[in-house]
Amino acid sequence: MNEKKGLKKLFDFLNSRLIIDKAVDFFLIFIGLLAALSVENYIENQNQEKKYISSLISLHSELETNLLLNDGNNEIKLKYIKIWEDVGEFASNNDFQSYSGLKNIYESKPLEYENKTYLSLDQNAFINRDLLSDIIHMYEINKEVSNSIQDLTISLENLYKMYSELRFIVLYANSEDIINPYSNFNFNFNSFEKLLFIKVEPELKDLEVTGKRILTSIEHELERYNIDIDESKSYSNYYWLANTSYKLKKNDLSIEFAKKGLKKIKNTISSMGNDQKSYYGRLHMHLVENYWILYDNSDSLDFNSFDSLIYNSLLEWEKSNTYNFSCEINYIHYYYENKNYEKFKFHLKEYYLKYSDEKHILNYLQFWQDYIRKEEILNIILEKNPEWTKEYFLNNILQSTTINDRIKKNN
């Protein structure tokens, strides 16, 4: 009997230890699951934060681009105002001058704002919801401004159409009854004025003010993560800013962006991937193009002031194998400005040897006429274009062939 009681105590003791061990196991498993979930949540939060920061940087670049485009649309607005004022003055003075209104309108095509980054944005994963609301509002303003400027363009086209009809009636139709055409013209004139000053101008200003405010908000948001916006942008961000600035003739700004982009590329040309090498070449291409424009527009600086700047970027552009044909043309132009005839001739030959499109270079030949007219240079060109005689090339191909030049020539 005592033996049975002893065995029972032993089994009870072992069972209690087993229960405790199992409880400990369950506790450890629970702790392990919590730890695993915590690690998983941490990694997920880190990935979300990283994606969020990347979105902020890209949005900043896109908004900065749109502010540049908004400057461009303000310039277009001023050109529209000039056309509107001119035809209004001609009509009010009964002085119906010939005017290239449609040509000027078409050459002043409104600029479309960028929205690729915004359209690809994961709004559900955007951490700062208040900032997201501001960004959504900003892109709604972009859309409103685009629509308003398109309406303004149509309004100006209608006004100029009425001016042309009125001019024809007054000058050529000998009509005594021109009340209706004047009435239509005045209606279109006043419609343009109201659309311009009541809608377009305030919207353009709103876009500028709101855009700058949101840029600052994004910069402050990035500061919370110890990120400087200028340091965080990629070479591709800076390339597109340089490209937009170049198209808007903001040459100094384009140079600034291109240099910042090149600083982001740390690799040597031999260790660059194809994408990086392409951007490297295009950034140097923009430097060359901007330097040429600054040189052409300068009254006080001679070529020596730009010589090394252009040449050094040409060398790097050439290494990238990007837009090679354009790079070769810029070499030709460089040696023309450098007054190095032999190098000019060498690179002209190189162009014709390397590139099958002999016609592309024709847009540039008129700038080098004193070299082009030399016999050995003529022979290089005519050898590649046997369908041309020397006289035909000099009198037709080499001369400027813009529409305005042809009109002047025919008159």
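Next protein, fold it too.
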Amino acid sequence: MGNLVAKLLIVALGLSITVLVARQGPKVQGAFALFVAVESALLTLFSGLGLWLARQMSQQAAALPSPALPMLRGVLRAAVGLGLVASVVLLGIAWWADTLPYSQLWLLALGAPFLLLVPTATGLWLGEGRMWPINLAQVAAPASVLLGLSGAMWLLDGSQRSTPMVVLVLTAWVSGKSLVAVVTAFRALRDAGHRDQAEVSASRLQADRVWPQWWAQWPFVATIGLTNVISLLNYRASLFLVERFHGLSTAGTYSVAVTVAELLWLLSSSVTVSAYSKIGHPDVKVAASMTVQAVRINVLATVAAAPVLLGLAWWALPWVMGEAYAASLWPLAALLPGVAAYAAASSLSAFYTNHLGRPQLSGMIAGLSLAVSFVLGLLLVPGLGALGAGIASSLGYTLAIGAAYGVFLRHAGLPVKALWTPALTRVA
């Protein structure tokens, strides 16, 4: 519930950001959406560091815990180093590109070493099942961005020049998230130090004990990163297709449809994050039981919420953001069935990664969805535009989630009817 409340605050802040940006025009919104997609690719590519730490924390035997502080320091140093490498790449792209938003990626290059700190540091709390520090970091990021955007709007003072507005918007986004990232890293280091001191005082931890090191399991870390990038492309490839065939403005209206549709994942992400440590339990019966419960809640909730969300969007989007965004309504209607079905993906992915230690299974499922939606998008987007992108993505999501559930059942040793028969997954 705490994570759900935090997610509601994040959604409110995120929608406020979207409204502020979208009201500057579909072109600005399109550039912003593509910029954020590139940033998300950077974060997900190196997200394996934080999930490796979370797995170490959640799978430790209670009688012999490993020291958390050395592990956290190691992954944070790696995050900063990888961020510096990413900065060089981003600067090269910005120097070579002459179109928005790619010409402004130098802004992302400045923040890259800091932005990676949040998904890395929060792995400590995720593995411990501690929600409030994660919630605070998640809420603080959009809050700081919204504050910066409000200042940018005030500085612009009604000017209609789109390029300066894009620069101000992107500057506010990067600077706000970078500030929160640094604070989050220091908070995690402090908590890890306190935890280790408490364990030493309780004679459960030897201060000089050798701890696990992430580079000894670099294939696991790299696989998670590649898997998450494939998952992100699964969510955002259609946006780039729309921009390629129909321009930045159409991509801007379609990005609003995507943003609204993905509100359905509000509850599913909260359930998965809260259950992550138990989904990683070494006992397959416990892990499978928690996974099925999470999938059941996620799918039922999103299926029920989808028509309500569509009705509210049909009334509110043109009124709040402007008549130009009425063009996002039919693509939204096409997206919602697949997005509702795909709500189960986060919990199933947690089972593959945290319990089985096989993140490549998540990558295979996301790759299937990406392949289906991308091929269909190539066929449908040129003629149908954003509506074709919504149809293609929805079909890709639906097909992939069926395959994902089948893979889960095989590894969990459960029948298909376990989803609607609680007695089959009850743990004594």
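About the second fold: The longest helix spans residues 162-201.
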